[in-house]
Design a protein that fits this description.
This protein has 164 residues and is α+β, with helices and mostly antiparallel strands. The chain has a single domain (4-155), classed as Roll (Ubiquitin Conjugating Enzyme), CATH 3.10.110. The protein has helices at 4-11, 26-48, 121-127, 134-155, and strands spanning 54-58, 64-73, 76-85, 109-110, 114-115. This is Ubiquitin-fold modifier-conjugating enzyme 1. Belongs to the ubiquitin-conjugating enzyme family. UFC1 subfamily.
Length: 164
């Protein structure tokens, strides 16, 4: 299902061990530590490979995440706000990443700007519970979605470059 480059990228993101969600008290704190460690490693790997493409932060409880992602197309940087909540049944259920400003511009999106990951990503996530985390959602969910959808939206004139 994944190519060799993706497989290599995935192997560099640490797998998570703790099966816990936001309502699991101290176990959630442990899971959150693992999430941050994996995300930090993924971001470091991306920077080393000159493939830095997102920033994320969370609220104090680690239940609400927000930040920016960007996509370079024909030497122009297209930047978008991203957000998602950690589902109550996490990590059994993957987070639904949203890009609110693109809401309604593509069929591969749900209400509120949530990107569509049902056919490809969610089955992979389900097979890898609790090992996959937020870093994996970015690498296997948002990254490929941006690579397919943003050039298409640009070519249709639905996304325009913001002049700085």
């Amino acid at each position: 299902m994944v190519d060799e480059a993706t497989r290599k990228q995935l192997s560099s993101i640490p797998l998570l061990q703790t099966r816990a969600g936001p309502k699991d008290g101290e176990l959630w704190v442990q899971r959150l530590k693992e999430e941050y460690q994996a995300l930090i490693k993924y971001v470091q790997n991306n920077k080393t490979a000159d493939n830095d493409w997102f920033r994320l932060e969370s609220n104090k409880e680690g239940t609400r995440w927000f930040g920016k992602c960007w996509y370079i197309h024909e030497l122009l940087k297209y930047e978008f706000d991203i957000e998602f909540d950690i589902p109550v049944l996490y990590p059994t259920i993957a987070p639904e990443i949203a890009i609110p400003e693109l809401d309604g511009k593509t069929a591969k999106m749900y209400r509120g700007g949530k990107i569509c990951l049902t056919e490809h990503f969610k089955p992979l996530w389900a097979r890898n519970v609790p090992k996959f985390g937020i870093g994996h959602a970015m690498a296997l969910g948002l990254g490929p979605w941006l690579a397919v959808e943003i050039p298409d939206l640009i070519s249709k004139g639905l996304v325009k470059h913001k002049q700085t």
